[in-house]
Amino acid sequence: MFEMGRGVKADKATPTTGSKCWKISTIFLCLMNMSTLVVPVTGFALKTCRISNEVAVCVKRELRAVPDDIPSTVKGLDLSTNQISKIHVSDFKKLSNMTELYLDKNNISQIDNSAFASLICLKELNLHLNKLVELQEGLFDGLSNLTKLIISRNYIKTVAATAFQPMTSLKVLDLSNNKLEHITEVRSISQLLPHLQMLYITRNNFNTFQSWELTNRSVGLSHLDLSQNPMVVLRITADVFPNLTFLNISNSPGKQQMILDVHNKTFLSRVSTLDISGLQMAFDDMKTLLQTVNTSLRSLRMNAMKQNLTALVYISCSIPTMSTLQLRHNKLRTVSSDMFNMCINVTELDLINNQIQIIHKDAFRALQKLRILTLSGNLLSSVPTATRNLPALEELNLNNNNISRLECEDFANQTMLRRLSLYHNSISALKDCVFKDLIRLQVLKLQTNHLSDLNSAFKKHLPNLSILYLNANQLTQIKNVEFKGLHSLQNLSLHDNQIKDLEKGCFIGLTNLTEILLQKNKVTEAELNKGVFNDLRNLRRLDLRENRIKYQSSSSLREPPFSQLFQLETLALPSQHRRDKAHLPCNFLQGLTNLLVFDMRSAQLLSLDKDMFKYTPRLQTLDISSNELQDLSSELFSPIPNLKSLYISRTSLHSLDFLINANLSQLEFLQARKNEYSVIREETIKSVPALVYVDLQGNSFTCDCDNAWFLQWVESNSQTQVYDGFNFVCNHPPDLNGKKLLDIDIQSCSVDVQFICFVSTTCVTLLFMVGSVTYHFLRWQLVYAYYLFLALLADKNQKNKKDNNQYDAFISYNIHDEPWVTGELLPKLEEEQGWRLCLHHRDFEPGKPIMDNITDAIYGSRKTICVISRKYLESEWCSREIQVASFRLFDEKKDVLILVFLEEIPTSLLSPYYRMRKLVKKKTYLSWPHAGMHTVLFWEKLGQALQTRGDLGEDLPQLTMMDRP
After folding, report:
1. If pLDDT is split at 50, 70 and 90, which confidence band does 930 have?
2. Domain that holds residue 225
3. Do 285 and 176 belong to one domain?
4. Within a domain: residue 283?
5. Under 8 Å between Cβ of 506 and 534
6. How many whole angstroms from its chain centre is CA 44?
7. Does residue 392 fall inside a structural domain?
């Protein structure tokens, strides 16, 4: 089960001295820390500890240093049973809210000065069983609110004079089992600890205790334990303990005799409890000691005494106020008739472990006021007759003797007896008359005997009995109306017997029974089906663990076994001893409308019907661990929305996804150890928003991005404590097997795939839209730009070439205009005027890339004549040729381009050719005349254009045959 357990600090060390004002301010800071600044600790993952009821529990973790991941809000820190050797000044800097610190059972040999200075609210500090040798000055700085300090079982030899000075609120100090030799080592205690009430300095090496060695009166000290020291002198010559009420000077038998010197009987006049067990002292000194407490003593312990015990009892019982006498381990064997004659005021007598075999029938006759008699751990074979002479006796303890029989007169006249203990004897049977006079008895302990039959001992008597222990006997059957007379019984323990037969009506009369324990018996489902529990209408707890209950089917029962237990709150049926697997009937819990806890662990269950819990709407704790359920449905938990604790360890579950729709919004504790979970999903954890503790040890975690969210949550969440989370190991993939789960790097898992998909889709969509718009409205401009770019590249290749013109003109034309070129242009310019012309079909170099041929032809000619027609504008290669020529025109600043229009072309068709349209508007061009027009002028103008030098600044001849826009 989930434990709930126990802690505080300041930013600066507290002063070792100060005024009342400082103390008030310290208390105020402490209250501020605990009320307004502290966020209640609920949970988180710690590397070596767990949080339990606001206490960090780090027990048995083999720690060598104080962990640095303890939350600052804890109110307690338990580091006991580790291997810490040194406490550093920085270890508790962040833990200012602590009120409890446990450092016991370590190897601490060194503590830095002011190591506890930040713990201004600390109330209890435990350093038991360490290796401290010295308590130096400044060790306890800041502990002004400490009330309890335990430093027992160390090796302390010296104590600095001001070591205890900061602890002005200390009430309990335990320095037992150390190496102190002189009482002067603790002299400062009386000076510096004004509120000290209890001082334990047992088992040191004190040889003497003399009051003059204490310079001040310990006014507040009420409890002083000097026991088990090799004390030879106890001298009290001053009233140094005016308010002492408890004094223990006991010693082990065989030690050296002690000399007692108490100058004034009033010095111990307030001692009410005195322990002189095993003390070796002269009889007169012992008598003197007892006389010093003659007016105040109430309780005297004289265990394992070597002196004449009868005489000591006589003296002690003469003290009129003495009421409690403890005489353990004295090997009395026989109690005589006159041993307690003077003990007329004793109300409690303890004779445990004395090997008593015989008690005289009149041994207790003088003890008419005796209320408690303890005779356990002796050798009595029967109930002593002497106990019948005790009319005021309320409690009789006869445990651990050799009693085998109880007779009808054993408890005769014990009408005042309220508690009777007879466990751990050899009683095999009861008689129906044995308890007839115990009309006020409330508690009867008969466990661990040999009882096999109750013989109607509880049918008539014991009307006020509320607690009955019959466990660990040999009962096999509970008969009808066996407990009919126990109308007041509330708790019945029958566990650890061999009961296999519960007769119907066996619990009749137990109308007030609230708890019955039947675990570790042989009860079967057949006994349950008898309705044997129907008479227990007020039952709150029923424990049937480790019996023989099994059901083979989940079908409904005609008469559910607990249908009348409307008040039952706890039902436990785990660990049923059977080999075959089982089910639970779907209406097994019918009638349990107030059930809060249901325990079915280790019951070999294969499944749970989805309607199993529809009868238990208030269920808060469910334990179905160690079954082979393998799968749970969310529907199973829907009827129990108030569930707070769920135990499903070792159930072979592969997933916790059933929690997602299970409506468990109140679940606080989840233990799911040793299953087969590989991935813990975010939706699963978020479905239990109230979760404060989860235990997932021993599962088969997958160490990949599927668990990235879980890893991040374990380390960073501030609500849920993931127990032992830093020790989870990887089982998959194989190459990471055994690696710590929280050591896996999950940074690469932080990519948001959905966001990337969104961005990618958006970009593709936008690109498609831009491409569509561009193609529709700007496709010709893009084509032009493309060729312009190619021409630019070609221009760069030719830029550094020498002016070596092979031709007078390169003719750029479309194949559809070839008839005009070969029929009109070529004869006039080459044959008549003698110009050298370059034509692609005639002069291009075979095998050479077309673009290289075009470039070489344009740059190898003085002029380029573009024969422009509609087909020309549509041609890809013509467009490339005019682009290269245009670049040459603007790059070389020479008039190397002649435009010849064979037909009228609207300006709109020239729009994609921005440079051509610009040339047409700014420069001259030739237009082939219409039929009937003068062609002579056209050829003359063309010849003149070929004759110009090429300087763009030079005036060119007017070649225009008609204006163009």
Report:
1. low
2. 171-320
3. yes
4. yes
5. no
6. 5
7. no
Structure tokens at 754: 């959905």
- Cβ-contact 915, 886 below 8 angstroms: yes
Q: What is the mean pLDDT of residues 399-415?
A: 94
* 721 and 663 both lie in a single domain: yes
For residue 897, give the H/E element and its range. strand 897-901
Integer Cα distance of 300 and 803 in angstroms: 135
**Can you tell me the distance from the alpha carbon of 862 to that of 859, in angstroms, rounded to the nearest whole number?**
8
Alpha carbon distance 143, 790 (integer Å): 89
Q: What angle do CA 179, 182, 185 make, to 5 degrees?
A: 85
In CATH, what number is assigned to the domain containing residue 100? 3.80.10.10
- Site of tokens 């990519």: 751
Q: What is the pLDDT of residue 752?
A: 62
What are the φ/ψ torsions at residue 657 (nearest 5 degrees)? -65, -15
CATH number for the domain that contains residue 222: 3.80.10
Q: Which of 454, 505, 506, 460 is nearest to 487 (CA)?
A: 460
- Is 118 strand, coil or helix? coil
Question: pLDDT for 309-352, tens place per residue?
Answer: 999 999 999 999 999 999 999 999 999 999 999 999 999 999 99
Query: Among the three residues 320, 336, 358, which one is the final residue of a domain in this structure?
Result: 320
d(CA 421, CA 406): 13
Q: Which of 269, 301, 320 is the last residue before a domain boundary? A: 320
Q: Is the pLDDT reported for residue 253 higher than 70?
A: no
Residue 797 shares a structural domain with residue 696 = no
Amino acid at 375: L
Which amino acid appears at position 187 of this protein? Answer: R
Residues above pLDDT 90, as percent of the chain: 51
744 and 791, same structural domain?
A: no
Judging by beta carbons within 10 Å of its beta carbon (0-12, 13-18, 19+), is residue 922 exposed, middle or buried? exposed
Q: How far apart are CA 655 and CA 646, in angstroms?
A: 15
Reported as a single tens digit per residue, the pLDDT across 799-840 is 555 456 788 898 888 888 888 888 888 888 888 888 888 988
Residue 581, domain member (yes or no): no
Residue 559 placed within a domain: no
- CATH code for position 861: 3.40.50.10140
Q: What angle do CA 326, 331, 336 make, to 5 degrees?
A: 80
Count of helices and strands (H, E) across the chain: 18, 47
Buried (b) or exposed (e) across 840-849, using 16+ Cβ within 10 A?
beebbeeeee
- Verify that 737 and 805 share a domain, yes or no: no
The per-residue pLDDT for 274 is 96
SS3 913: coil
β-pairing verdict for 730-732 and 148-150: unpaired
Over the stretch 746-765, which tens digit does the pLDDT of each residue have? Answer: 776 765 667 678 888 888 88
Tokens of 550: 């099994």
869 and 904: one domain?
Answer: yes
Q: Same domain for 709 and 796?
A: no
Give the Cα-Cα-Cα angle 7, 10, 12 (nearest 5 degrees): 150
DSSP state, residue 269: T
pLDDT value at residue 729: 87
* 809 lies in the same domain as 710: no
pLDDT tier at 782, thresholds 50, 70, 90:
low
- Gyration radius from the chain CA atoms: 53
Question: What pLDDT shows up at residue 536?
Answer: 94
β-sheet bridge partners, residue 493: 469, 517
Residues with Cβ within 8 Å of 942's Cβ and at least 6 positions away in sequence, in order, are 828, 829, 865, 898, 900, 926, 959
Separation CA 186–CA 438 (nearest Å): 54
| pTM, full prediction | 0.75
Mean pLDDT across 419-425: 97
pLDDT of 616-664, one tens digit each? 999 999 999 999 887 889 999 999 999 999 999 999 888 999 999 999 9
Domains: count for the chain? 4
The sign of the CA dihedral 286, 287, 292, 295 is: positive
Highest averaged pLDDT of the listed ranges 33-42, 283-292, 335-344, 799-808: 335-344
